[in-house]
Amino acid sequence: IVEFACLLIAVKLNGFACKNPAWVQANDFSFSGLHNPGNTGNPFGSAITPVTVAQIPALNTLGISLVRIDYAPWGVVVPHYHPRATEIITVIEGSLEVGFVTSNPDNRLISKTLQKGDVFVFPVGLVHFQRNVGHMNAVTISGLNSQNPGVITIGNAVFGSKPDISTDILAKAFQVDKNIVQQIQGKF
């Protein structure tokens, strides 16, 4: 009963509504469609299909979720991090370059090329990425140790904030001209 506590009380927990126990159904514990490829016809060449508390209400408080990622040839999942989860990725099809950057002051890149069946771990809070290095589509499944891992995409956060981070600050941070910062901000 403790494992399903959120479904057994009528309150919000972790920001998500808990269901009255009389209304709980099998659909609160399931998700269909993970076998369907995502649409990789976007500038990044990747598609992410999440299975978090937003898709399966019963995950609330259970501390797990997963994601299917589809990659077109040379498609990428851009540098990002999960503020509330470690991620473990398994290559189902294809060949991927994966990596993460350690924290300051070292900022060391830890990367590897993975093949079908290989597994890699991205520690919580560290910037990481994936890129299909093959000429065929690739597919991965990732497990995360949070029902709501969150995602912070570096480019969006830095150059697409609302309101904008001052061009003076970003120009100094990236050691580039303010015009370059404005040009990049314009893309977001």
Automatic annotation (TrEMBL):
A single GO molecular function, which one? manganese ion binding
Residue ranges of every copy of the Cupin type-1 domain listed in the record:
32-182
Residues that bind oxalate: H82, E87
Swiss-Prot/TrEMBL keywords: Apoplast, Disulfide bond, Glycoprotein, Manganese, Metal-binding, Secreted
For this protein, the record's InterPro entries field holds: Cupin_1, Germin, Germin_Mn-BS, RmlC-like_jellyroll, RmlC_Cupin_sf
Q: Which GO terms describe its cellular component?
A: apoplast
Give the main localization category: secreted
What Gene3D superfamilies would the database entry show?
A: Jelly Rolls
**Where does the UniProt annotation locate this protein?**
Secreted, Extracellular space, Apoplast
| Binding annotation for Mn(2+) | H80, H82, E87, H128
Q: What does this protein do?
A: May play a role in plant defense. Probably has no oxalate oxidase activity even if the active site is conserved.
Q: Per the similarity annotation, which family is this?
A: Belongs to the germin family.
Name this protein carries in UniProt: Germin-like protein
